[in-house]
Specification:
It comes from Streptomyces kanasensis. Residues 9-23, 31-53 have a biased composition (Basic and acidic residues). It holds the Pfam family MT0933_antitox. This is Kanamycin biosynthetic protein. By secondary structure, the protein is mainly α. The protein has a domain at 24-55. It is 73% helix and 0% strand. The protein contains three helices and no strands. It has helices at residues 3-17, 19-36, 42-55. It starts with a helix and ends in a 9-residue tail after the last helix. The relative contact order is 0.17. The mean pLDDT is 90.
């Protein structure tokens, strides 16, 4: 696997070990995108954030 794939796998493993922190990061990234786009793509960012959370086993119920 290439370096990018290795980095993605390491990030996923770290997120699995620290889901609360990972949830905060995902929520922050989602918030920034929504702010910069004027919430134009809110539904898409919600689905994307949910997909990321599922990838490391979070249900997204931690405080955002």
């Amino acid at each position: 696997m290439g370096k990018l794939g290795d980095m993605a796998n390491k990030a996923k493993e770290m997120a699995k070990g620290h889901p609360d922190q990972a949830d905060k990061g995902v929520a922050g990234a989602e918030r920034v995108v929504d702010e910069r786009t004027g919430n134009k793509y809110d539904a898409q960012t919600d689905r994307g954030a949910d997909a990321v959370r599922r990838s490391y086993g979070s249900d997204g119920t931690t405080e955002r």
